[in-house]
Every structure is written in structure tokens, then in C-alpha cells.
Amino acid sequence: MGPERRIAIGYQMITRTVCTIGFAVALIWGSSAAAGVGYKCPQRIAANDRDFLSIHTKDVLSRIYQDLGCTTDFVVVPLKHALRKFNAGAVDGEALRVPLVETHYTVPFSRSAIPIYTLTLALWSHPDPLVRNTHPIGYVHGILWQTAFVKGKQSVKFHSEDEMLAAYGRGVLGGFLTNDFTVRSKVNAPIPIRTEIVGEQQFYHYTHIEFANFMDTFSRYLEDKKPFSEFHN
Predict the structure, then answer these.
(1) Minimal CA–CA distance to 39: which of 61, 65, 58, 78?
(2) Under 8 Å CB-to-CB from 20, ≥6 apart: which residues?
């Protein structure tokens, strides 16, 4: 084999090696940041599946992340555990939270610049006064505004919104806590009466502070595309 042939073969081997390394680096980078757009993508987002709104939020967020070039896992975690995982760094963000959660965060965080939803939170009561006045209020464990509302009141804790609404349908609850959208979407009979407005609550998306650049882009996407408009009051 002549020297020219040996040089050519050596050059081909170096080229293949460089290409292989480059491809591996690109894969690693692609898993943590959206190439060419200047932000690092969250890898694991804690999501809730206890209520109708949260399930749809997870699905829409997953599509948004894909649109922004991120390959992100949305892992279903109970809300109470999600908070601990966020503070421990086991997840990079939480899909949907109210600002009340911020007092429970022990690590720096980034919040979407605009809310995902603005919904009316209320106590919905059974239309039959006898049931309404003699049976407890249902709430979902881990939803902070509901937990705060039922303090000192006769109440029953449920692990999911579906479980709570089923109990209401059986007539074992005098009322329950949720938002207007859920009542319009999921409650058939008996039609509840909105007896007390707890407040108008804004729901946001949260990540660790290291994803602040991503959250800036995410917030602009919300502003431009309005992907959650069908869920608002």
C-alpha cells in the first residue's frame, strides 16, 4: 500500500470518528436543549391526573413542548409528592399550580409570565336543601385552595375529582369544590348550585430557575397561540 493510500484511509477513519462523536454530542444536546434556539429544555415535568382540567393540561403541554423542540417526559405524580420532588430536583417542573405553592418551594423557580388558566373557584352545592345542609363538602386531597377552604368545616377528602363527583352523584355529599369549567364539562345530575365563590384563581406553569430562558419562550407561545383558550371561563 502506497503512502498516498495510507493517508487517504487514515483521513477516512478520522472523518468517521469525528462524525460519530459529533452525532453523539448532538443527541446529548438535543435531549437537554432545543438546538439553535438558546434555551435548555426541562426533562421531567410532574403532572397530576386527579381532575379533568389537569389531564387535559398535561396533553396540551406535551404538544407545546414538542412544538418548542423539547423531548420531555410528563410523569404522573400526586400533587403532594410532586412538591417534594420539585424541591429535591427529581423533576424539573410542575405542569399546573396556583401561586400559593410558591411559599412551599425551597429552591429557586421560574413561573410562566402569563397564567395558563384564569378560572372561578367555587363551592357547588346539592339542589336539595336537606342534602345540602346535612352532608359534608367534598374536596380533592393535595389541591391547596380546596384544603385551605375546608379547614374547620365538615368535609370528606377524595383522591381524585372523579371519585368526588361520583360520591356527589350518589347523594353522599352536600357539595363539592371545583372550578366552573369542570362543572360545565363533567357534572350531569343533580345539577349543582354555585353557593359560594372562593375566588378567581390563576394557574401557572412552573420550572426550576435554570429553565428561565425556556419559560420566556413558553410564555410567548401562550400569548401568541392561546392553546388553552377553550378551557377559560
Answers:
(1) 65
(2) none
11: CB partners within 8 A, 6+ apart: none
Amino acid at 228: F
Check if the beta carbon of residue 96 is closer than 8 Å to that of residue 116.
yes
pLDDT digits (tens, 9 = 90+) for 121-139: 999 999 999 999 999 999 9
Grid cell for residue 3? 503512502
Instruction: Using alpha carbons, select from 81, 80, 111 the residue that is nearest to residue 98.
Output: 111
31 with 105, same domain: the answer is no
Residues 63 and 110 in one domain: yes
Domain boundaries, position 57: 40-114+205-231
**pLDDT tens track for 12-39:** 444 444 344 333 333 333 344 454 568 9
Per-residue confidence (pLDDT) for residue 36, from 0 to 100: 52
CB atoms within 10 A of CB 146: 23
Residue 137's CB is within 10 A of a number of other CB atoms, namely 21
Rounded distance, CA 41 to CA 33, Å?
A: 5
- Looking at the structure, do residues 197 and 209 belong to the same domain, yes or no? no
